[in-house]
Amino acid sequence: MAAREIKSPEVQAETPASLGGNSESVKRKKLGIYFLESDDRRTAFGGGYVGGTTPVNIHGKPIPDLSKTGGWIAAFFIFGNEMAERMAYFGLSVNMVAFMFYIMHRPFSSSANAVNNFLGISQVSSVLGGFLADAYLGRYWTIAIFTTIYLAGLTGITLCATMKIFLPNQDECDQLSLLLGNCEPAKPFQMLYLYTVLYVTGFGAAGIRPCVSSFGADQFDEKSRDYKTHLDRFFNFFYLSVTVGAIIAFTAVVYIQIKHGWGSAFGALAIAMGMSNLVFFIGTPLYRHRLPGGSPLTRVAQVLVAAFRKRKASFSSSEYVGLYELPGKHSAVKGSRKILHTDDFRCLDKAALQLKEDGPSPSPWKLCTVTQVEEVKILIKLLPIPACTITLSLVLTEYLTLSVQQAYTLNTHLGILKLPVTCMPVFPGLSIFLILSLYYTTFVPVSRRITGHPHGASQLQRVGIGLAVSILSVAWAGVFERYRRHYAIKEGYEFSFLSPMPNLSAYWLLIQYCLIGIAEVFCIVGLLEFLYEEAPDAMRSIGSAYAAVAGGLGCFGASILNSIIKSVTGDRHQMHQSWLSQNINTGRFDYLYWLLTVLSVINFCIFLYSANRYQYRAVQGEEGTTKKVTTPIVES
Description:
A hairpin with a 2-residue loop joins strand 5 and strand 6 (417-418). Helix 4 packs across helix 6, helix 4 (126-162) crosses helix 7 and helix 8 packs antiparallel against helix 15 (426-451). The chain contains 19 helices and eight strands. It has a two-stranded antiparallel ribbon. It has a two-stranded antiparallel ribbon with strand order 2-3. By secondary structure, it is mainly alpha-helical.
């Protein structure tokens, strides 16, 4: 057994002692210059370069007076874009199921799967948007391009709902014909057009989801004494804007649809998106920008290839020089500070293992900096946390589609007021709005006394609280659905699944709605803040994309789960209804909710294990303060 220490180099020293001699010093200096020049990073439109994480203007030039840019004013211009996007997202997620069923004459199950796929595409495609923002375009231009695509998709959906050429014949299609499936189905080209514009809209979210939250957080000065407080409040206000968009979608848009038709409802979403784009562009002079740090995928690939090439190299070898890092205060990765070495994933350290055979000018595919290696480590270490939110997203997706079917069988009267069924999902939004409004006056002071944390709870603690509350929500959903189904059969409504039962209120659904709203506040807000702070400086859009991808996988997971349940539990030949029968009163939605409860409990246990093992990252300061990290490596 041989042991050797890996040491992060002192930033003041030009040459580590292990290099020895003046000739080796020259080699090290040449190697450092090579890395600076060979790392061909892109700059934002307009060019320019500033090291570290210094904010720049839209042309990539340093901002002479930061007090005239950024801050809360700039952030509020950005909020509007996310509000409109979520307004369209939730407006389509609820109304599109009904539109496909009542207008396009598609079954509930296929309509729900189509909408789930739309939700999934709109979130999973965030990886592309995050990559483009971090690598080439910067967050501002990524948002600008993809919001335009989003607007084009919404315009196409509006045309689909208003032009008869895109709609099947509605004559002699009453409620009984719908139930029996006797209405004229949409022609293949009509469904092709609808799916195309719907998925174009979903693709437009690719550049909005991962960038808006990160771009808004970029408006605050990291060197400010109150930076942590501002960042914490920003993500809460950000999600508040998301909630306002959802509330408008579930109320105003539904009202427009009932009073003025589908074309007006979808047109309202397009108009709102267009107005938010205008507001976003008006705020351009106020924004602070971060330069893209070059292709993160290239840097990740370089680390993996270099580590593989040196997989047989030993840290105790006489050929071992040290772990390579650039001298000075700047990192080789533009837009990023240096990241201190950690002990995790030591096999990747071999990518930064400098050997004598590397020579003065090795390829970046053979030798990487410590910061570059640590970027890859961080991306890997972050994965389990957002992965544990996939189950929550799956539950949310099932609620958006299945709870609408539940509400059709219930009495939605509130006194003299009768709420449309598609308005029911507004209640999670209202609960989120209320919780965020009371967060700093109620939750933080109370939890601070318990945890001692200045913000009431850490980011991972908030994620854990959200996941725990989601278990209560889906468990209650199973209990109530069992009661609702038995009541429907007992009262003779077994085959009247679109007729409301007057003596059973839909407001029993509020319990599961409000609980899932609470879960969403704690989990998603905590996750967004966690990913922004923990992601590498030059990969923050990709870090934010992790949350969106987890949400998208949850949507696809809902579609896959529904398909599996239908194939396993249903049998047409034996006239056996599946759990997810179109007639909810003969199906077993309660079994699905119990299955989700079990999955949520297992997922929560995995989260507790992952969160307990996670260690927050350390970053070397911008000013070049000397920090020394020693890591013993034991070779067998």
